[in-house]
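Q: Can I see a sequence and its folded structure?
A: Here is a first one.
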Amino acid sequence: MNDKQHTIKAPVTVSGIGLHTGVQATMTFCPAPVGHGYKFQRIDLPGQPIVDADVDNVVDLSRGTTIEQNGARVNTVEHTLAALVGLQIDNVLIQLDGPEPPIMDGSSYEFIKPLREAGLEEQNALRNYFEIPDEIRYVDNARAVEIAGLPLDSYRLTVMVDYNSPVLGSQHASLTDISQFESEIASSRTFCFLHELEALYKQNLIKGGDLSNAIVVVDRVVSEDELSDLATMLGKPKVAVKKEGILNNVDLRHKNEPARHKLLDLVGDLALVGRPLKGQILAARPGHAANVAFAKRIKKRMMEADSSPIPTYDPARQPVMDINQIAATLPHRYPFLLIDKIIHLDAHTVTGVKNVTMNEPFFQGHFPGNPVMPGVMQIEAMAQTGGILVLNTVPDPENYWTYFLGIENCRFRRKVIPGDTIIFKCILTAPVKRGIAKMSGKAYVNGKVVMEAEMSASIVRKDA
């Protein structure tokens, strides 16, 4: 799995008809900055409102997942989102000039292909994974549906379906790593049973449905009169049924294509939690309603974890900036360069790491018989971390200096000693105006706050 966030290198466009609305639409995937996530923009509506791909914005689950925000609605988002998750793309603005993404061939492949052609661009921030901490479970006994999420240091999904059908029977599909999505899952098309088809039309759905973008499973004997009526309904001169029960001689791309498509839908629906996931997902007879209910449970656990946002440090993960990149940004040098790594950096927040060792030069004179890191050095290390954040707000940081203007409400909670790893987290508390930045900062050791302060700094051009 990727450690760094990614967007796409250039805009890419697809066009087609929407499955349920039947409306022709053009959809453009646009590059987006770090921390942006997935957002749809209805450019055909006044004000071009934006709809966040968020489970809290789901308003309808009639044979697809529909989201709504700011007076704008986007239907059937799951195939589009599944393609982005499958390619491990984190930040994209999806501009749409209609109410529904094009259905294309009924799978995610027709989105995967142009996104691949556009190319992926690595961004200077780590992916903000939510790692499922313990079992999260959703059960709907009435529909015999069960979905469970278990801890795992990757993203693995298994789906089992049982349609009580002589044509499909019981099927299962698995994805042992999300990197296999493109080759194993993306091409699997949406489907429905013949007995559902007429009901969907009566519900004013699948207006854009066609045998070129959906599989229709025929699980009973069909008379010639019924086939004639179906042809009229689908706008076809004639339809037929193959021996294996697929309408109009459509060949399956995989023997278990329906189960694979259910897995595709699950990937797309779970994208609505808003962060990439790590965990093992086991789903029996899933559907959009169950997927979204399960996604809400995951998001609730995420919010509970985020309510006490203590930064975590995994030494095995590649940093956003190593010591050489820090030295290329900050003017400090030995013995005053006090930050070893930057492990998170976005438009508002930075997290830095300082490994405290007995070899620090200040321990020679600061309580040598009882080595304690001086508070002023902790402030300086926090200031350097904040300097990285401030310089990230200008386009050419190498051409600027940062100078401290003030420190307020500074508190030291616990002593810091050799062997400690300090994690500094600084957050902009207001937009940078006239070169002045205001931040709040906290320092943690073993998940406990050791110091905190409010700081202000000035950004000055080197040639000023």
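Q: Show me another, different protein.
A: A second, unrelated one:
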Amino acid sequence: MKKPSSKGLKNLKSWVFQKFTFDFIEKTARETGFMQRKRKLDPVLLIFTLIFGVSSHMKPTLDEIHRHYIDLDDNPKILTSIRSQSFRKRFNLKLVDFLKSLMEHYIDQMVHQSPAHLKGIVGGFKDILVQDSSIIRISKKLYELHPAARSRDESAGLKIHAIYSVVSNSVKNAIITTERVHDSKMLKIGPEIENILLINDLGYYSLKIFSKIQQYGGFFVSRIKSNAVFKVVSINSGPSEITSIVDHIRFKSINGYDFLDLMPKKGVYDLICSFHVGDKRINKIKTPIFQEFRVICTWNPLTEKWHLYITNISKELFSADDIYDLYRFRWVIELIFKELKGDYDLGKMFLGNEPMAFIHIYSMLLRFIISRDLFSWIVSTSRKNDKGKYTPMLWSKVFSEKGLEFLSVLNQNLFGKGNVNKRWVKLEKSLRHLAKSRNIKETLSLKFSEIL
């Protein structure tokens, strides 16, 4: 479904009210069963509260969220606002569905409206996707429903499986499961992966998956497991003083780790290696299937270990150093989880029932997605010389600090108290100024993309 573009919006006020279409939010609330008829709890104001009511406490509470809602719901037509007990009752599974639907809607907008594009050596890809997961600790009361995977005590936890899109500069997909669901089960590969690069950590390591990615015309970069078995087919490159005297025929078909044991502990080797990716049966006879992939071996003097990377990207397109840089880019999704937990309160509300735990996580994800959307709009509408001064990490801090000011301006705008336009202009000016770094520097999350 095509969404209205945010390009061409003149100011922060127009961005907010184009993004938060009241009719759409109320329609979604009805479709998910959260609202049957509009009474004291306004779904639009609740969403504003959950997104912009950023906590100033170390551990936010539901009472604090209720107080922010009461401050925003200053409608003179309503003599008494919703009471705390009634407010709490609305935090149920229907609100979970409501928030999840909104999150998916705004993710879809980010994917289709993003003003960013790939740059430099990765410009030939359609997108770069980085997948990872993070565990969120929840109340021990939920241990029987969601027991922790590696904890010895009765800890409980949920896991967020997220996919970061470089083109969208945000999360493209987010799924919440119990902590014991393995990461590899969440990696889905199909025709849509064509000309897309996937960068994953060892939790998603699977030779069958790598083979499938190549089959569908996609690309990948991953670390290699320490117990992997593979044989050297040929040597693309290595330290010249070593490869010039190496008997290449002698090292053909040697085990990969045996090859590295024989090499001096330094430099970078670019190899073509053969891996056993599975078996097939022909006339009831099981025949092993081998496939060749490129392996980059980098010696790390700090850890005194070889770091091995597997990829299907050809050496003609990317050098060994390029592959190493691509894998380092995987850290960007770790920074996103750090941002969610540090600036947006994710995991800080230890709530005693299951719906509340999911509501908390979906609220924080929704907050993050809206924040990144606004970040992209701020950068895209800034002067060319200033674009490089905006960084996602600084932005998240400024956004969280300005959240309550958003609520205050929205209150004045919604209920017609005086001239609010000057406050919108002042808030936008403040966001643009405070979120801009003093120096132009390339940040990791914008290393391979830029916002136009």
